[in-house]
Amino acid sequence: MKSFDTVAIVGVGLIGGSIGLALRERGLAKNVVGIGRTQATLRTARRLGAVTQTTVDLPKGVKEAELVVLCTPVGRIVEQVRQIARHAPEGTLITDAGSTKLSIVEALDGPLDRGCRFLGSHPMAGGETVGPTGATADLFVGKVVVMTPTPSTQAQDFDRIEQFWSDLGAVVVQMTAEQHDRAVGLTSHLPHAVAVALAASVPEEYFRLVGTGMRGTSRLASGGPEIWTDIFLENQENVLAAMEQFGVQLTRLVAAIRRKDGAALLEILTEAKARRDAFASRSSDR
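Predicted structure:
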């Protein structure tokens, strides 16, 4: 278990707040600095015990940090990393929690100012909750965190970031950024897109008839719109490919229903149930 003197978290919503709570509960950091855009969110994070100090000034917040974790929309991460490197101590390690990786990793692969280094991460945890009030110290326990090193990543940097996530209870998986974005386009971004379409399909006059099935299936649509706008655009190619693959299956289902083909319909439903049961038994809720 490797402890830090100071860890700075940029963005103290659900993910950032949970990182802070886990660090403090497990004694992994003496100081946890929360950096954000609004004082209200930062006050909430501090009141909940996720951070020990707060600021809206990014350069000030990272000036003593050994490790900086960015939990902000993916469209901001590259510029924020470059800004952090200009103001953090020499050799500070920087990682992120972004749901897309390729464009971020490609932009930041190589030397940064003041000898700082970036290594991409993506904790496969969270949900539709927005803000620090939903944060929990055990959010990452048993959850997968994907790390995306490049050939220029230093072994000691990988080991230290891997240990950081492991100390929070996560299971670390290594992939290339390209592999990561292709995989999450199907397993994470497609479900959100489907939930959005489902929620948008229900007319207001039927709201009172919405049951647990629709509520559960569409819950991801409650996720932060700004965050998901960035994700869909950053991972456009893989999201569209996943949606096309989904469209093939939906068309197959439509055709069977239209033909009143019970045998084909039963086959589709049976196959889907088997697949869902198989992956549900092998993975925790994301």
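Summary: Residues 202 and 210 are 9 Å apart (CA to CA).
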